[in-house]
Design brief:
One of its GO terms (molecular function) is transaminase activity. This protein has helices spanning 3-6, 29-41, 52-71, 85-95, 116-119, 141-147, 170-179, 199-202, 264-280, 282-301, 330-341, 353-358, 376-393; strands spanning 17-18, 79-82, 103-107, 127-131, 152-158, 183-187, 206-210, 221-225, 240-244, 247-250, 307-309, 320-324, 343-344, 346-348, 365-369. With 394 residues, it is of the alpha/beta class. The strands form 4 sheets. Strands 2-8-7-6-5-3-4 form a 7-stranded mixed sheet, sandwiched between helices. Helix 2 (29-41) runs antiparallel to helix 9 (264-280). The longest helix is centred in the first third of the chain and has 20 residues, at 52-71. The protein is globular. The structure holds 4'-deoxy-4'-aminopyridoxal-5'-phosphate (PMP). Residues 84-86, 111, 113-114, 158, 162, 187, 189-190, 210, 221, 351 line the site of 4'-deoxy-4'-aminopyridoxal-5'-phosphate.
Length: 394
């Protein structure tokens, strides 16, 4: 995969260096065109009207739905289009019939979206056990062996940390969960866009991810489920097989969770994004990012005055790299990179306040995150700019 060749699909890269794909990725022309084709040429609601425009829109929606499901090795019938990862996790957290005394295990590494829904269950008598990561964000499966018991109903973990980049050993954790009859929810917001994923290999029961981090539009996310056991959060138009004044029968597939008009153009756009990723090949994308991440890690660790947080081996991590410049606030570093060098990075707590407390980084970190369009020259420019910033501190 040659990042230089595909860059013409991403016009934003003409003008600046985008190293904030962990927050939201860029979108290629092909995806923007698929969305605008729906809006300008065949816009209609789906699964409702019998006219030809609706038939075309419905078919394109269903094709995109199937493609998104097979991208993660899932069945279309149990793959639900949501608004984002946060909503996908929320559907599971609100839909399980919790009982007092149930236990949930999660980690201190989590994004607020995979932490707050579980902490809130404490109000309903559910116990929440927190597994602590090492300082670099890695977690030994033995920590889960100690935390998961026969009372554990669900384990909710991120696949890849959005702060430290560390990948968790999901397959091993899945085996531990299933030995105890617990289900496993994986927050794949940072992994699905970057590495090949098959839900059968992961062994999880729920996988949640966001369209806007994988070349798709905002307002789209995915919840894949092994079994459709959670009670839907919202029901109404589109979610039933039958309804009368005495009762209703929910649809037997994903439609029970997609009450109301879904993001039609957005889902068609996400389907196009998946097509784009598949045509490049997820293996090749992850190899490219491993190479870029090695260059970034080597460069950053070579600068006196920059501290890198997270694992050092690109094979154990994704291209989300956090660092700090002692003596300068992370927001100031990010502002200078933008204003002086046209480099976009994120700074702050990354919606992971408990992790920041644990790492004793109250101001947070600067985070550079890569994707398939990131080039080695861009990394070198970031490194040169950081050398100048470090000189300002001295
Ligand atoms: N989990 C992780 C690991 C994330 O990085 C993010 C986005 N920063 C989310 C959940 C939430 O994603 P969204 O805002 O799309 O719901």
């Amino acid at each position: 995969m040659n990042a230089d060749v595909i860059r013409s699909d991403f016009p934003i890269t003409d003008d600046l260096i985008y190293l904030d794909s962990a927050a939201t990725s860029l979108m290629p022309r092909q995806v923007a065109e698929a969305i605008s084709a729906y809006d300008l040429r065949y816009r209609a609601n789906i699964g409702r009207s019998v006219h030809r425009l609706s038939v075309v829109a419905t078919q394109r929606y269903l094709d995109a739905h199937d493609r998104i499901a097979s991208f993660i090795g899932g069945e279309s019938g149990t793959t639900v289009i949501t608004k984002n990862t946060t909503e996908a996790i929320g559907i599971v957290a609100s839909g399980i019939p919790w009982e007092k005394g149930d236990r949930v295990v999660t980690t201190a590494l989590e994004h607020h979206s995979n932490l707050l829904p579980w902490l809130r269950l404490r109000n309903r008598g559910v116990n929440v056990d927190i597994v602590m990561p090492e300082a670099d964000g890695t977690i030994d499966p033995a920590a889960f062996e100690a935390a998961v018991t026969d009372e554990t109903r669900l384990v909710a973990i991120t696949h890849a940390s959005n702060v430290l980049g560390a990948l968790l050993p999901v397959r091993k954790i899945a085996d531990i969960c299933h030995e105890h009859g617990a289900e496993l929810l994986v927050d794949g917001a940072q992994s699905v866009p970057h590495i090949p994923i098959d839900v059968k290999d992961l062994g999880c029961d729920y996988l949640c991810f966001s369209g806007h981090k994988m070349l798709g539009p905002s307002g789209t996310g995915v919840l894949w489920m092994q079994e459709m056991t959670p009670e839907p959060l919202i029901i109404g138009g589109g979610s039933v097989e039958a309804a009368s004044l005495t009762g209703y029968t929910l649809a037997g597939d994903y439609r029970r969770y997609e009450g109301g008009t879904p993001p039609i153009g957005g889902t068609i756009g996400l389907g196009e994004a998946v097509k784009y990723l598949t045509s490049l090949g997820m293996e090749d994308i992850s190899r490219h990012e491993e190479w870029i991440t090695r260059r970034l890690l080597d460069g950053l660790t070579g600068i006196d005055g920059v501290i890198v947080h997270g694992p050092d081996t690109p094979g154990d991590r994704i291209g989300v790299v956090s660092f700090t410049v002692p003596g300068m606030h992370p927001h100031d570093v990010a502002h200078i990179l933008d204003e002086a060098s046209d480099i976009m990075v994120r700074s702050g707590d990354h919606c992971c306040k408990p992790l920041m407390e644990l790492l004793e980084l109250p101001q947070g970190t600067v985070r550079a995150s890569t994707y398939l369009y990131t080039t080695g020259e861009e990394i070198d420019l970031l490194l040169r700019s950081l050398e100048e910033i470090v000189r300002m501190v001295e």
